[in-house]
Amino acid sequence: MSETRSVETTAPDIESAIEQGLQQLGVARESVIVEILEEPSRGLLGIGARQARVRLTTAAPPRPVAPPTPPAPQPAVELAEEEAPEEVASLAEAQPVDEAELDDDARVGRETLQELLERMRVKATVSVYRAQAADNEVAPWVLQIEGTDLGALIGKRGETLAALQYITRLIASRELQRRANIIVDVEGYKVRREKQLRRLAQRMAEQAIQLGRTVALEPMPPYERRVVHLALRDHPQVTTQSVGEGDRRKVTIIPKRR
């Protein structure tokens, strides 16, 4: 029987800390138990300095991350960025569902988010949709906040929305005693952003091919990097890789050698 392994990591937010731990252990998300040792101090509006600290413990024999075999590397999607199903599903094709179809994740997540909005004195409603899952994963629930003048809930580069999603997931996960399979969006912001990123990925891939050299995109949060990785995963002429640390981490698009 394989022994379990543990690692503690710190990062500006919980998801980034988990991502680092997965990379260090070389396992998929479903193969670890995540303990939140210290929450970041950024709070609801993304303000604060204390970093998140988590402990990851393998709950099953580790699944190694196989490196690409030169000189013909496979399209790269970093394991930690690919294995979180709630963040690689396509939101563009999310469908509304009947109340009877909602499971505990959807109900608890919606109630949690609605209460948070009320405490923030934001007049809005929360509708539940089902995203399209990727690679046979369980499709996540999309909690769509709908109302008027909700730009403040998105914030610069979606930072406020990311903080709101983090808090909603954290509270819902504690009540469910497991990770809540939910995504929070505001008036279709993430859907529009996903479409923009996919177009950007294709355009920059063509540029990398024409120039014959690696092209780097601007720094992006983990979710947006995943969208770019997946948009180019099956591209016959380029591969992708994330480089950098923390908030400066970005996707590079690399032409394949002929």
Could you please describe the fold and organization of this structure?
This protein has 258 residues and is of the alpha+beta class. The protein has three domains: 6-58, no CATH class; 86-189, 2-Layer Sandwich (GMP Synthetase, Chain A, domain 3), CATH 3.30.300.20; 191-255, R3H-like domain (Ribosomal Protein S8, Chain: A, domain 1, 2-Layer Sandwich), CATH 3.30.1370. The chain is built from eight helices and ten strands. A four-stranded mixed beta sheet has the order 4-5-6-7. The protein has a three-stranded antiparallel beta sheet with strand order 1-3-2, covered by helices on one side. A three-stranded antiparallel beta sheet has the order 8-10-9. Residues 60-88 have low confidence and may be disordered.
Structural class: alpha+beta
Give the overall silhouette. Answer: globular
Count of separate structural domains? 3
Distance between the termini: 44 Å
CATH class of the largest domain: Alpha Beta
Question: How many H/I helical runs?
Answer: 8
Radius of gyration: 19 Å
Question: Percent helix among the residues?
Answer: 25-40%
Average pLDDT, rounded to a whole number, is 79
Describe the biggest sheet? 4 strands, mixed
SSE sequence, one letter per element:
EHEEHHEHEEHHEHEHEE
CATH topology assignment of the largest domain = GMP Synthetase, Chain A, domain 3
Strand count:
10
- Looking at how many chains there are and whether they match, the oligomeric state comes to single chain
Question: pLDDT below 50 for ≥5 consecutive residues: which ranges?
Answer: 60-88
**Spatial sequence of strands, sheet with the most strands:** 4-5-6-7
According to CATH, the homologous superfamily of the largest domain is K homology (KH) domain
